[in-house]
Amino acid sequence: MQNKWNDEEAKSFVARYGDGWGEELALRTYSARLLGGEPSLVLHGGGNTSVKVLQPDTFGNQQEVIFVKASGYDLANIEPEGHAALELSYLKRLEVFDAMTDEEMTRHVRGRLLDYRAPNPSIEALVHAFIPGRYIDHTHADAVLALTNQANGRELVERVLGDDIIVIDYVKPGFGLAKAMAEAVKQKPECRAAVWMLHGIVTWGETARESYDRMIELVSRAESFLKKAATHPLQVTVPTQVETAQSRWRRLAPILRGVLSERTEDSDRPVTPVILAPLVDRATLDFVDSDRGKQLALTPPLTSDHLIRTKPYPLWVDGLDWEQPETFRSCLEGAVEQYRREYSEYVERYAAQREEGLARFETAPRVLLIPGLGAVCAGRNVEEAAICRDITSQTLQVKAAVAAVGEYRGMSEADLCAMEYRGLQHAKLRSSEKCLERRVAIVTGAAGAIGSGVTRVLLEQGCHVALTDLPGDHLDSLTRDFEAEFGGRVLGVPIDVTDPASITAGFEAVSERWGGVDLVIVNAGLAMVSSLAEMDLEKFRRLEKVNIEGTLLMLSESARHLELQGIGGDIVLISTKNVFAPGAKFGAYSATKAGAHQLARIASLELAGIDVRVNMVSPDAVFEDGSRKSGLWATVGPDRMKARGLDERQLQEYYRSRNLLKSGVTARHVGNAVLYFATRQTPTTGATIPVDGGLPDATPR
Questions:
Q1: Environment class of residue 255 by beta-carbon count within 10 Å: exposed (0-12), middle (13-18) or buried (19+)?
Q2: pLDDT tens column, 41-80
Q3: Phi, psi (deg, nearest 5) at residue 272
Q4: Are residues 560 and 505 in the same domain?
Q5: For 123, which DSSP code?
Q6: Residue ranges of the chain with pLDDT lower than 50?
Q7: Residue spans of beta strands (DSSP E) within 436-526
Q8: Cα 94 vs. chain centroid, distance in angstroms?
Q9: Chain segment 587-623, per-residue pLDDT in tens
């Protein structure tokens, strides 16, 4: 393992944070980020760091303070405020107690926060308080776990890392572990490192660099041993090409997503979807296609820190039929149903050990391992699914390393359940979720004013949104803007709605990223100004191809996809007031949009049987969405301004004043109407919401 300490970088952290937080915490932040930036040491909020300092109290007296990483914070990008300040002298006195419940420990620890607004300190705060070192680093280093999680793990650790470290047999993190460490340090006061079996490694020192250097040295020693001792690696029995597996994933992801989604008793929302993250690469395929992959996979996780992300065990599914979707679905459903039963039995088996009041996790697996495909990981949103994927990747690598050296040994099932259903662990998970957090949408014509406005509303409600439009700068810039704000819940996908192959490829791209699609916003459209007498037939056909054929093709592909996925869905057509109240010299647009509207009404009849609702939103006069101008009004506006003798601002005022509410219609208004249908506020399909400020002639009838 490379030692990445750099004195100049360390000085830059002191320069940046020293005045506001002190040099010690500035260096603590620097070395914490070095640890967090190495995935083979910690992942996604794992690991813990601390530093002890002297600070004046309210009365000017020097007091001992310990800054401990707050629960759930990510070391890779931690800021100084990510370490909560606690009164150290009080915490050290807690060592006199023989035992302490989590509630008592939390009360004592939170009661000694120097700032009541600070986040919850780590579950291991007392460990850091009881260890004498000024700087303390704790990681779940892959190489160390590959030693501890073996049948002869303790002997291996002592042989490889030396007898000048402390080794602690597995103890549930919390007060018990803190007490065990305190006693062990008294027995070996000269030691500056400890290995916690089935958990991780801790190092400490008087400086940030001393503790960091010791961590890198010991982990490197473990890595070197594993490399030399790897005499019995996994053997691939039936190899799968990565391209083959990726093709299977793109085609069959919607079935996987549908089967993994939870069924409910809510008639409006009968399914709770999941977001999927695939792990289809050479290393994962070699593991699942190997001689001992299944045996290894169905062992406990590397550390209890991973439990709330991955559940105790994955689901292994083999013998799937890649060419027959219904046979594939049937086999998968049977395997998932068996997993659900076994998980429920596991939870009930250790019911007496669970903390009361904790909600039970969903019974479906979070990780599927499938020979010939790879791994599939599930979560409420893309962030959770990605965390699960990264942990799964690490887990498979470490288990493969163990298998090459010896025999894997993990936590007991009782310990697993005790940690999985522990309040302090559940507190790391965000409990509330936004209304569309588990859903995936496709928006066509997203680069236009209405498309971007609808997209923003959906993203603000937690939705994962694929922005689609013709390829080019408009789509690219919109994607960049939304990615900067909403991160991994945004995907730009070029789609030509007049090309069936392009639409199919677009749906597959979205399925490849998130597993499937729940919500389709059919918005792409063209306009033109011409009287009927002077209308150019080829120009009319161009509108017909986009507005009618494009709608038909999107409805057709949506129907196929949603039926394959099997969990229902919603389609919303962005229609227009011109369907009900057409305008002169606007016949091509009015007629073709009326055709699209009628297709959507028919789709509402045909798709109700698979719980797909199809509704329409009928806006009027949406000129822009922020800096994004409406393509329709770029076409129509000059003619309307000329006919009425108005400039652009006056034209907008004209359309505002002509409706009953004297209201300007915005892209956000249209997005809010889409949101009404997307969240299924009422049992409605085949309906139209006018978003026009009140135009009696355009009222649907």
A1: buried
A2: 998 888 999 999 999 988 999 999 999 999 889 999 999 9
A3: -105, 105
A4: yes
A5: T
A6: none
A7: 440-443, 464-469, 490-494, 519-522
A8: 38
A9: 999 999 999 999 999 999 999 999 999 999 999 988 8
Q: How many independent structural domains does the chain possess?
A: 3
> Residue 504: helix, strand or coil by DSSP?
helix
Cα–Cα–Cα angle for 613, 329, 375, nearest 5°? 105
d(CA 213, CA 206): 12
Residue 265 lies in a domain: yes
Q: What's 67's DSSP letter?
A: E
pLDDT at residue 701 in the model: 61
Chain-centroid distance of CA 664 in Å reads 37
**Residue 570 contacts residue 518 (beta carbons within 8 Å):** yes
Q: What residue numbers bound the domain in which 165 lies?
A: 7-229
What's the full length of the chain, in residues? 701
Measured distance CA(268)–CA(270) in Å, rounded: 6
Query: What is the H or E stretch that residue 676 is in?
Result: helix 667-678
> Looking at the DSSP assignment, which residues form a beta bridge with residue 166?
194
- pLDDT of 427 reads 77
Q: Are residues 569 and 456 in the same domain?
A: yes
Q: Is the pTM of this model over 0.85?
A: yes
Q: Would you report the helix, strand and coil content of the chain in percent, each value rounded to 5?
A: 50, 15, 35
Rounded to 5 degrees, φ, ψ at 491 are -140, 125
How many CB atoms within 10 Å of residue 447? Answer: 25
Which of 607, 478, 482 shows the shortest CA–CA distance to 554? 607
pLDDT at 290: 97
Give CA 577 to chain center in angstroms: 38
pLDDT at 637: 67
Give the separation between CA 103 and CA 606, rounded to whole angstroms: 55
Round to whole Å and give the CA distance between 530 and 62.
Answer: 83
Statement to judge: residues 181 and 267 lie in one domain: no
Task: Find the CATH number of the domain harbouring 561.
Answer: 3.40.50.720
Q: So what's the pLDDT on residue 633? A: 65
Structure-block tokens of residue 13: 């952290």
179 and 43 within one domain: yes
C-beta separation of 523 from 617 below 8 A: no
Rg of the chain over CA atoms, in angstroms? 30
Q: Report the C-alpha gap between 66 and 46 in whole angstroms.
A: 19
d(CA 183, CA 177): 10
